[in-house]
Fold this sequence. Notes:
By secondary structure, the chain is an alpha+beta fold. The chain is built from 9 helices and 5 strands. The protein has a 5-stranded mixed sheet with strand order 1-2-3-4-5. α5 crosses α9. 26% of the residues are buried.
Amino acid sequence: MRTITIALFSFFALSLLSCGEEATSTEQADTTTRTDNDAPAAESTAKKQPANTQEGQLQSVALHLLGGFLVTEYELQGDLAKLTYATSLEETNAKGNTSLSPDKYWETAKRLDKYFPLAAYSIMDELSFVNHLEATIPYDGKTYLLDIKRADFEEYVGHSFAKLKENPHELFHYIHVRSAEGRQKFADRFVKIQ
C-alpha cells in the first residue's frame, strides 16, 4: 500500500512539473508573437533573416512598425536600410499576410503620415548601424519615398538619439508624431512623392 501511495505521489508530482514546463514554453512563444494592435497578426513572409544578423535585426524592427506586415523587401547596403512595401492586395495575399489591401490599411486612421516619423525614429534608434533609411510605400496611385539620414534627423528634431532616449515622448513623439502639423512638416522635409 505504501509503495502505491509513493508511486501515485511521484506520478502527480512529475505531472505537475511537466505542466509547468509546458506553460513556460507557451509563455516564451507568446513573447515572440506580434503585438501591433494596428495590424493583422500575420507577419510578412519576405525571406526571413537570422535574428543575430544585422539584416535580421532590421527585419525584426521593421515588422513592428506601422504596416510592418506589408513589407515585402528588406535590404541593408552598408549603413543604408531599404524597405519596400506591398503594392496591391494580390501581393499581400500571395505572401499570406492579410486580406486588407495596402491602400485600405494606410488610409485607416491616417497611418501613412504617422509612419514616416515613427519609422525613422524607431529604426535609427534601435539599430545604431543604420545611418540612412529609405522606405518605399505605394499608396493611392502614388509612391511615397521616405529618405532620411541620421544626422539630418538629429538636426531636424534638435536632439541626438542619446538625448531622445532620455524622454522620447516629450522630445519627439508629442511634437512629430501626435501633432498633425509636426507630421506634415516632417513629411514635407523627408518624403518625396512620385
